[in-house]
TrEMBL record, chains A, B:
Name of this chain's protein: APC family permease
Region Disordered, annotated ranges: 631-655
Membrane topology field: Multi-pass membrane protein
One Gene Ontology term of the molecular function aspect: transmembrane transporter activity
One Pfam entry name: AA_permease_2
Record carries keyword Transmembrane: yes
Localisation per UniProt entry: Membrane
PANTHER family: POTASSIUM TRANSPORTER KIMA (PTHR47704)
Length: 655, 655
């Protein structure tokens, strides 16, 4: 997509919603599962508390939505949490948020794809037990698709997301109707009893009970992942951008909350029993579970119960849920390189990542994301429950810091704003963000307390590594910038007094002659050919050729007592420089251009090493004179022959 | 070692013997074992035939020694089998022998180190079962030593080789005396019975018996490995080189034969019983062997019996035997890169391997050898018996082809020689080589027949792969040479009509100014700076700087609708070329020189990609203008400041 073209693809709300919603909506495919699974530890009576936990999650979700609606108005540029934190809290805060976001992208891929594999196994029972392998395969597939640069249209997102909403709505309505008419079938797990773990025989009591409740709540907060996506995408909305984005965000929040509520309700109505290790934590009337029992995700179990008589709808619900999870992972593949590009622009990552058109840098980002996600999937055996522990902490770190930044933002803005109406709106916004800060801060503490030893520490370690790396890169670029600063213009404009040209040769053949001809064409003050004498016979042959072909420049043979190439040349060039330090030495190196990588191994090795060493010598320019071997011309030059567009020229007089 | 220095380290025979003998002599540490082990299959009665097999091996060994004595006289240059085959039988024969030799070096390391691990386990019983791990560790250690470039003196070889000869001699004499005085203790395995395998209940009878005998013989021929080493080392001998080398070779042969004879004799005298799988093939008076029984190498068992009352001597014999095996492996580490260098000189391997002073190429050779040997040790679990099957076929291929080459050599020489005395000597030499050819050819056939399915096919496959690769490389170099041949000297001397210089810039800083100053110093016909406009703000800043700093060359901004760097520059340079095809375009690229590899990731990526693409464009020279960052000067330029030695200058008048 060209820079100009970007302006023409602004999204109306009905397309923007699915484009940005897949990540957030897909969370409902695992958040309710995690709530029930955590509560299971205290036995089935604790399930009575699941609506309250759902309510708490909904409150947090709507608060976060309200907070981000302020962000969307204040930062229509789409910088998101990273921009908010950097602008208002300084560079280190920005780097912290960036670290959290980078880790989150990896977690999004790992969690979504792992859960998608669970849904696949609900439809295709024969893949049971191979979830990790399937997840890895899916990530590889997504990676290849994204490397190929498949550009998704709005419809690519719209169809599955609306299908998912439709499926959830259908299931909710149909299920509710059945429930009230008393015709709702029970879930496959409804008959099982939960064996409370030691310490929870009395249900949720005491500090242990409170902690477990807190854990269930923080696991449920997985529903919030992806909510911030819209704040990064404001520039893509149709005008009025901020207002449309805010509306879409609100819509997204309401849909999410409705879905969670519906799922938790139907889970109770169908009697779903869900545990981390069903065969250890459940019994079937006191006896062990049937050996082949495979626990399916909650939505799958509900769909199975609700659509008991129309299995095609069960397959439909399960399939679109899996699809939406894959789509969520795909958004991370889009978002990760974009964030990388922004971080590179700010000097926190290698600068070449900034060039968006740069396919290689883009590809490296995609591959890095995929590799990290695959590693996590393998390490945690595609267990969503274990991966979730790592996920939420990063999300809430960026939520909290972003809200803190917003509070700071409004406070600053209020310092200069005089219009009373605007001021009152700002005060209101600040209140919303302050409430959001308080709530997300509390959730962050709960998440840290309940999840630290269960895996959140891994996230913090990864974030710390990224933080240190980005700080180091920034410091390096700063140092280099200071070093390169043009302090003395007139000194920089001084020219070398003379140009001494040296052509490096080994034999007399076409590339040599070309290098000599090119060097002569530049009319240097002095010009000589040099060769390193390793084999006396070769030298003698070269000397004879030189005289025979009447080559019009002198040939200098450098002695190489240690049969080396590089050092004699380096020493000779340095000696030229030391006799006339104000001269410029241009070393012409004939170089073969080959068509195949393996040919590269057969050529140029000495030249390459020599070139890289020569560059360390001050006052030396290394000029590569290429010779294109036949193999280099077969398809190797695949460039289109567009006329380049010269924007404009500025300039002093040509000397 | 400098080229000149090489001349001063010629070896007297007493030092040359140990330097070249470790490989050949170390074979006696496994050849007798393999003979007994193969005979064991037919039960203990077949041991009666071991002296006859020893005799056959001795005959072959002495024949090969006699043959190589002719080679040493005819080819004092030390090219060895590869040179003999190439010169007399053509390039393909040479490549075949080279393939065999390369594989043999790998096998030498794998077999010697695996057997050394067996000897270690005879002294240190606690390492039993970890032989493969120990062998891998030892190869890694040898690799590191050789990468560090530890240069061995003659004494490095002399001491352990003479100690080994002394140890063997002592053991032989002492053991023989004890035998005739009736005081010789029996070996630890002497009490065990051998269970003949199905088909050999009657001992060595029929075709099966003959085949087994042939197999035992061809395994015993492992004693011949390394005999050819002296023929590669003739130039290192003191004058008269050929005669001294021939004498040393004869000495080596006699010592080898004596040792084998002694070991086979003492093995019978002490009643050693030796099998591939002792716990399956042996019984202890009809019952299974003691569970902890670990079978030790034959020399170890003999030493244990002979020095029963002086265990320190047992340790001494076993330790020096292990040491000599490690030394043999080390000679492969020296020989492999040298052969690689010779093959590279002849265009059969990448040319940079030829530069002997080139540490990197040398290191690559060492690492390749080590990696291949480690792979074999792991695949074959350090089992010498299984590795031997792969070893001998390569050795006898080179023996046979070398003898064939020698016969051809003498036949050719006889065509032109007229001196009757010289002729008669040549006829005699030819007879020796012809006999050698016949015998080694027969052995080769026996080896192929008895070992093909047992592993020799692997060697042949590896050889075939190397053969095809070397042929391909040679063909490539030939093709390139023809392509580069200077056919039209006057056309090659034509100069480009004008030089258009282009300086690639992104910002105005010190490296930019240096690049502009250098470009201006070369006084091109036209000079402009170009930049790619990706970010309008950056372009505006650059333009303001340009005017502000009064930079005296025009600045051209190239439009980049796809936010790319490389293509706009390529297209612009091509358009310059297409408007004036006879001009030379010199592109000056400012480049950062950094001190750490990770800094390289942070810089130059766009420049590097651009440079490599520009080289595909005809008529373009890419000039790198380096800027040494501070980090590049800390120790990165570690070159000594020697004055270079200019050998001489040839030359036409300077235009």
């Amino acid at each position: 997509m060209s820079s100009d073209a970007l302006g023409h693809t602004l999204l109306p709300k009905r397309i923007a919603l699915p484009v940005f919603a897949s990540d957030a909506l897909s969370s409902v495919a695992y958040a309710p599962d995690e709530i029930l699974l955590t509560l299971s530890i205290a036995g089935v009576t604790s399930y009575l508390l699941s609506p309250w936990i759902g309510l708490a999650v909904a409150v947090v979700l709507l608060t976060v939505v309200a907070s981000y609606r302020q962000t969307v108005h204040a930062y229509p540029s789409g910088g998101g949490d990273y921009e908010v934190a950097t602008t208002n809290l300084g560079r280190n805060a920005g780097i912290s948020v960036a670290s959290a976001l980078l880790v989150d992208y990896v977690m999004t891929v790992a969690v979504s794809i792992s859960q998608a594999a669970q849904y696949l196994s609900a439809i295709v029972p024969s893949v049971n037990g191979y979830e990790a392998a399937i997840a890895v395969g899916a990530i590889v597939l997504l990676t290849l698709m994204n490397l190929r640069g498949v550009r998704e249209s709005g419809a690519f997102f719209a169809v599955p997301v609306y299908l998912f909403m439709f499926a959830m709505g259908l299931m909710a309505v149909w299920g509710t109707v059945q429930y009230f008419t008393g015709s709702l079938t029970l879930a496959e797990s409804a008959g099982f009893e939960l064996v409370a773990e030691p310490g929870f025989e009395q249900g949720l009591v005491g500090i242990g009970g409170a902690m477990l409740l807190a854990r269930a709540f923080s696991s449920g907060c997985a529903a919030l992942t992806g909510v911030e996506a819209i704040s990064n995408g404001v520039p893509a909305f149709k005008k009025p951008k901020s207002r449309n984005a805010a509306t879409t965000l609100l819509l997204l929040g309401l849909i999410s909350v409705t879905m969670i509520a519906a799922i938790l309700f139907l889970a109770r109505a169908t009697g779903v029993v869900f545990a981390e290790n069903p065969h250890e934590q459940m019994t079937d009337g006191g006896r062990a579970l049937p050996e082949g029992y495979e626990q399916h995700p909650v939505i799958g179990q509900i769909a199975d119960a609700v659509f008991h008589h129309t299995p095609v709808l069960f397959y439909f619900v399960t399939a679109v849920t899996g699809l939406i999870l894959v789509l969520a992972a795909n958004t991370a593949f889009n978002g990760f390189p974009v964030l990388g590009s922004i971080l590179a622009r700010d000097g926190l990552l290698p600068r070449q990542l900034h060039t968006r058109g740069d396919r290689l840098a883009f590809s490296n980002g995609i591959i890095a994301l995929a590799a990290a996600a695959i590693a996590l999937v393998i390490i945690f055996d595609a267990s969503v429950t274990r991966l979730i522990q790592l996920y939420i902490v990063g999300v809430f770190i960026s939520f909290t810091m972003s809200q803190l930044g917003m509070v700071r933002h409004w406070t600053r803005a209020l310092r200069t704003e005089v219009d009373a109406r605007v001021r009152s709106r700002m005060v209101r916004s600040r209140a919303v963000n302050a409430f959001g800060l308080g709530l997300t801060g509390v959730v962050l503490v709960i998440v840290l307390v309940t999840k630290f030893t269960r895996g959140a520490w891994i996230t913090l370690v990864l974030m710390a590594i990224l933080f240190v790396a980005m700080r180091g890169i920034a410091k390096h670029y700063d140092r280099v910038r200071a070093e390169l600063e043009l302090d003395d213009v007139s000194a920089a404009r001084a020219l070398p007094s003379r140009v001494q040209a040296v052509v490096l040769i080994s034999r007399v053949h076409k590339p040599t002659m070309r290098a000599i001809a090119y060097a002569r064409a530049t009319r240097p003050s002095s010009l000589e050919a040099i060769t390193v004498g390793v084999d006396p016979e070769d030298v003698e042959r070269l000397r004879a050729d030189w005289v025979d072909k009447e080559i019009p420049i002198p040939l200098t043979v450098l002695d190489s007592p240690y049969r080396e190439i590089t050092r004699p040349v380096l020493d000779y060039v340095k000696s030229l420089r030391s006799t006339s330090p104000r001269d410029l030495v241009v070393v012409y190196v004939p170089e073969y251009v080959v068509g195949h990588w393996w040919e590269q191994i057969l050529h140029n090795q000495s030249a390459l090493r020599l070139k890289s060493r020569l560059l360390f010598t001050p006052g030396v320019v290394v000029a590569s004179v290429p010779w294109q071997l036949d193999s280099a011309s077969d398809g190797a030059d695949e460039s289109r022959w567009d006329e380049p567009v010269v924007q404009w020229r500025t300039g002093g007089p040509q000397e």
